[in-house]
Amino acid sequence: MNNFTIDARTVFQIGRESIESITLAVSEVIKNSYDADASFCNVIIDKNKVIFHDDGSGMSYENLKENWLRIGTNNKITTPFTTKGRRKIGEKGIGRFALNRIGNIIEIYTKTSKESSFLRIDFNDFNNGGDLQDIPIILENTIKTTSNEQLLGSHGTVIVISDLLEEWDESLIEKIQLECSKLTSLNKPFLI
Hints:
Layout: H1 10-14, H2 22-35, E1 41-45, E2 49-54, H3 61-68, H4 75-78, H5 95-102, E3 103-111, E4 116-122, E5 138-140, H6 146-152, E6 156-164, H7 170-186
Antiparallel strand pairs: 1-2, 2-6, 3-4, 3-6, 4-5
Helix pairs in contact: 2-5, 2-7
């Protein structure tokens, strides 16, 4: 008997190569904050990194392991509404791959009302191919960075993206602001 296998470079085809622009990638990340019942999503642009911060419900260690790291789950079909009754607007679980359209190194600090977790992916590790399940990803059930732990308060998510694929100049930032304004007009009272 034979089975399908998945090459590690497939993550680039799903994310970096299929999401046409950084503005759409940012939009997908913000939609995930909305789907987490956040009241805001701040986008902070630093010299060599971009930070997304929301006050959503956060993700547990188990949720990261069983849903976020699993490609093709049906949880948006089985639970189309959030705890607050919002219709989920994220697209087909591509938000996690949209992160790679922005940069190669992803750090996620997330906290539910009961626990905190940390996830780190270096997409550079996927360049040489190989079996997807053999590429190491760091997943821990604690946050060791005090500043991010404090920033999260009682719950939420901080996503730090570095090794950026493009320079975030004024023109790109204006395009992102325009895309974000479309999201806020449709989904009040959500702030970006």
